[in-house]
Amino acid sequence: MKLWRPAPQPQPVPGHAYQSGVGQVRPLVLGDGSRVTLAAASRIEVQLTPHARRVHLLEGEAIFAVARDPARPFAVIARGYRAVAVGTRFSVRRDPGSVRVVVTEGRVRLEDAAGTGGASALLPAGSLALARADGVLVRRLALEDAQHLLDWQQGWLVFRDTPLSEVVAEFNRYNARKLVLADERAGALRIGGSFRWDNEAGFVRLLEAGFPIRAESVDGQILLHAR
């Protein structure tokens, strides 16, 4: 009589979780030698195996300087997309409904994480890709402009024709005192420029001086009204 035993099931690879707080930019060195810089209020889970290197971006944004290891592709997964590199430098940002990839060195392949043959794009240095449910939009930038999009690691936030609603959300990742839009009209204003993320008060003064915006301090928050 033979006893049947089910085949052992593969065990999930344990991951290591890392996160940064509000206003914190956190540098990390992974076990394979790759370097990661977490933007404020960001969270990742890292899985390193003998055959693969995977990072799940659960929240926020991170810059990756990938240690070369052709036998183990390095993949960053966010919102159903996977950015794959061997040795390069790039960032991945997770926003509601979209993923943004900026490549500043080497090449990155952006593809459907489920492996179903969906949208795919090869991104050389100087590329900006925006992936949504309906596809991937790729723009070529001057390398200097692509690098400026990552200036938050030096304390700067850079915006180009960006709705104030998105600018406010970005400032709020770096400051305990929150900016709050009092009406939709204010949120639709388009903003451009470079601003210190630790000088929220200076940014608000510029808004009042250059835009039809009135600021009001209420209960530890700054309300932004359209004038």
Structure description:
- The protein has 227 residues and is mainly β.
- The protein has helices spanning 143-148, 164-172, 184-187, 200-210, and strands spanning 16-19, 26-29, 35-38, 43-48, 53-65, 74-78, 81-85, 89-95, 98-105, 107-112, 121-124, 127-132, 135-140, 156-163, 179-181, 190-196, 213-218, 221-226.
- The protein folds into 2 domains: 16-147, Jelly Rolls, CATH 2.60.120.1440; 155-226, Phage tail protein beta-alpha-beta fold, CATH 3.55.50.30.
- Helix content is 13%, strand content 48%.
- A hairpin with a 2-residue loop joins strand 8 and strand 9.
- It starts with 15 loop residues before the first strand and ends with a strand.
- Mean pLDDT is 90; it is low at 1-12.
Q: How confident is the prediction overall: mean pLDDT?
A: 90
Regions with little confidence, pLDDT below 50 for 5+ residues: 1-12
The portion of residues assigned to helices is 10-25%
Cα radius of gyration in angstroms? 20 Å
Strand content: over 45%
Give the count of structural domains. 2
CATH topology of the largest domain: Jelly Rolls
CATH architecture designation of the largest domain: Sandwich
Q: What does the main sheet amount to?
A: 13 strands, mixed
> Quick one: how many beta strands?
18
SS field, number of helical segments: 4
CATH first level of the largest domain: Mainly Beta
Specify the overall morphology: elongated
Instruction: Name the helix and strand elements from N-terminus to C-terminus, one letter apiece.
Output: EEEEEEEEEEEEEHEHEHEHEE
Broad structural category: mainly beta
N-to-C span: 86 Å
